[in-house]
């Protein structure tokens, strides 16, 4: 392989990995991407231009496009088209990130969601490198070698698109598969809050809980509670989903029966809170918190958070609220699965991801390479047989030519023999006479 081929494929793999990672982290957190798009619109003074549903659709589409571009580069699918699209995208994003670095209207670009947070200058530097790689790939797109033959690329395209779309829809219905935010399950909020109160740098500097009415700050007492605490988190009650009110009220009745504190936490005003109470019949106490913090705590409106001794031990979206039927409703949380710290670890999630997406593509690649190898072997065998047949035909033709030449050599001697025979007969006749 020539040095040019090596550089092209190294650049292609770098771009592929970046786009796959960027698309995947957006696919598992479409609401987070929606919030970031809204931040961009606000930076350009275009906030309110599109409804939330349109922004959410754009976030899902963006995740799918970025993920597919990475897959296309990785498998060298439609090489000329893909390389040109990636180059065009980098030509747009690089000046944009330079402007972000110079003006700093938002804290980070959100390229990799909350998984990898970069400063605006780091993002610009990253895009300069990717732009250089995109130029190299666009100049020599046909140097990218394929892992899967062209005839089987449609399988990779459709499977990857369905995977990205399915992941986005699942994470919208439930919660992100991977939670990279500082409020993931297992986070010790009390420890972080205490460090912040001691003057240390902390991501929880904006985290506070104030009781509606007297505006008393109950953050410290809530996080210091050694028992269980339910938090119904609704960043904006005006647009909160009220389709699971029966389960919410059942959970509140359960908490009331077992003397567990149950708070509704929102950034909405008293009018929205009053309207929510009228619609749902909510009897639980409401508290106020910053809306951005609540969107960071849980990607659901509303969503349920369960604390124990200041530690987040469970989070549920409004679509997957825990159901406590009899006789479970009579048992304390210590004896129920939802009262235990979730055992769904990151390695298990990665293993499932590898099994459902990476493994099928690896098996497809291996099968395709075996199929291509067997096709090459058949083709080579066919050519060998053709050569053998041609060799046999040539040999037969040579033998036929040789036989023809022998016959031609024998044919001139026949008249001489006839002449000698006739002369002998004449001599015999003369002798007789």
Structure at a glance:
The chain is 60% helix and 7% strand. The protein contains 13 helices and six strands.
Question: How is this structure best described in words?
Answer:
The chain has helices spanning 3-27, 30-43, 52-75, 79-103, 120-139, 153-173, 189-197, 219-224, 245-257, 270-280, 291-297, 346-410, 413-432, and strands spanning 210-211, 228-234, 262-266, 285-288, 303-308, 311-317. The chain has a six-stranded mixed beta sheet, with helices on both faces. It is an alpha/beta fold and 433 residues long. Helix content is 60%, strand content 7%.
Strand order of the main beta sheet, please?
1-4-3-2-5-6
Mean pLDDT: 86
Low-confidence stretches: 414-421
The helix content is 55-70%
User: Terminal Cα separation, in Å?
Assistant: 98 Å
| H/E series | HHHHHHHEHEHEHEHEEHH
Task: Tell me, briefly, the overall form.
Answer: elongated
